[in-house]
Amino acid sequence: MEASIQRPHHPGPGGDSNSTVDNHGRDFYDFSLSIPFPSPMEAEIACRSLDPDPEPRRNGVQRELTVIGNKLVLHWRAEEARFFQASITTFLDYLALVLQTMERFGSPGPH
User: Fold this and answer.
1) Would you say residue 39 lies in a domain?
2) Rounded to two decimals, what is the model's pTM?
3) Coil, strand, or helix at residue 42?
4) Among 32, 46, 64, 68, which residue's beta carbon has the most beta carbons within 10 A?
5) Separation between Cα atoms, residue 31 and residue 21, nearest integer Å
6) What is the three-class DSSP state of 16?
């Protein structure tokens, strides 16, 4: 599993290399996560289980899930740390449940 996070950083003598700024000059928190699965099919099942419908933009949090090969790739962006943290924490709880369920029932196979 690979993860990266960037927090808002106000420009100073050291530069502004850790910030993410939109076209309006607002700072954002960004978080990306890449989770490998044994197969592309299992990554797709996890993605569909975790994101059955597009999430409405609540509290300024945007979340994107995609499947690339056998990896589930997630990206969050938010303006406020508390909503950012709550969204990621809740999602990771759901992810743990999906992984436990997939482990319990085994890999999908031809029927």
Assistant:
1) yes
2) 0.71
3) helix
4) 46
5) 14
6) coil
Q: Please count the structural domains in the chain.
A: 1
Count Cβ atoms below 10 Å from residue 43 Cβ, excluding itself: 21
Residue 77 placed within a domain: yes
Residue 108 has pLDDT above 50, yes or no: yes
Distance CA 34, CA 74 (A): 6
What distance in Å separates the CA atoms of residue 64 and residue 45, rounded to the nearest whole number?
A: 16
The full DSSP string for 19-59 is -EE-TTS-EEEEEEEEEE-SSHHHHHHHHHHH-SSPPP--T
Residue type, 27: D
- Domain around 40: 29-105
Q: What is the predicted pLDDT for the residue at 12?
A: 36
In a domain, 46, yes or no: yes
Is 93 strand, coil or helix?
A: helix
pLDDT digits (tens, 9 = 90+) for 44-101: 999 999 987 666 666 788 889 999 999 999 998 888 888 888 888 999 999 999 999 9
CATH of the domain at 57: 3.30.310.50
